Amino acid sequence: MNRFVLGLLATVVGSVTFAAPSFAMGSSDAYENMQVGVTYTVYKPGYTAGLKAQHIGGNDLCSAGTEENLLATYGRKSAKHFTITEGNPMCSNIGQGSVVLKAKFNGVMLVMQAYCDPASKQKCTRSDVKRQGGHVQVHLPAAAGLRPTTVWIETFGAKNLSGAQLIRIAKGLTPVG
Q1: What is the bridge-based pairing of β-strands 98-105 and 81-87?
Q2: Which residue range forms the structural domain that includes residue 127?
Q3: Using one digit for the tens of pLDDT, what is the confidence trace for 102-145?
Q4: In what order do the strands lie in the sheet with 134-140?
Q5: In the chain, at which end, N or C, are there fewer CB atoms within 10 A of the end residue's CB?
Q6: Residue 7 belongs to a domain
Q7: 175 CB-contact burial (10 Å; exposed 0-12 / middle 13-18 / buried 19+)
Q8: Which helix or strand (DSSP H or E) is residue 165 part of?
Q9: pLDDT by residue (tens digit) across 76-89?
């Protein structure tokens, strides 16, 4: 009987010992983990154009005393990909292009820029986002007890997402928690 009680006690202690660290590690959701460390509202995409996350976390571009920005990369640079950068304030700059769209959704202003050739005499359009890259910028409202957030969604490289896909990603962003 004593062996049974000791065996049962060892099993319970072992289970608690191994279970406790898993609770301390935080959520398995990188966006939720990022929200714990910042006072701006973290937004998570509901639509990712079918691309898998390669990295979600902070970046090291912010100066001391400034909250780090969230940087998420989806897809691969050699194929279709896009990045989401979130923060308040933003600790870096994003490429500048021609404004090809300004639109409101849910009371939020969305601005799309295409990275067109500045030497070109042709007018830059939304379709240039897919050909040459570009980004969407939105300023999203604060969730309870947090601050508002600036979000940049950028595609640039070998194979770019379309402007419509960037808009769909922006419209699908929801606050974490």
Answers
A1: unpaired
A2: 28-175
A3: 999 989 999 999 999 878 888 999 999 999 999 999 999 999 99
A4: 53-58, 70-75, 81-87, 149-155, 134-140, 108-114, 98-105
A5: N
A6: no
A7: middle
A8: helix 163-171
A9: 988 999 999 999 99
**What token pair was written down for 81?**
């990909």
The answer as to whether 92 is a domain residue is yes
For residue 16, is it within any domain?
no
What's the number of CA atoms in the CB half-sphere (13 Å) around residue 66?
16
22 assigned to some structural domain = no
- Per DSSP, the residues of 106-157 read TTEEEEEEE---TT--SPP-THHHHHH-EEEEEEEPPPTTSB-EEEEEEE-S
| Cα separation, 156 vs 70, whole angstroms | 18
**92 in the Ramachandran plot: left (φ > 0), alpha (ψ -120 to 50) or beta?**
beta
Side chain identity at 143, as an amino acid letter? Answer: A
- Locate 123 and state its tokens: 């007018």
Q: Which residues contact 57 (CB under 8 A, 6 or more apart)?
A: 30, 34, 70, 71, 72
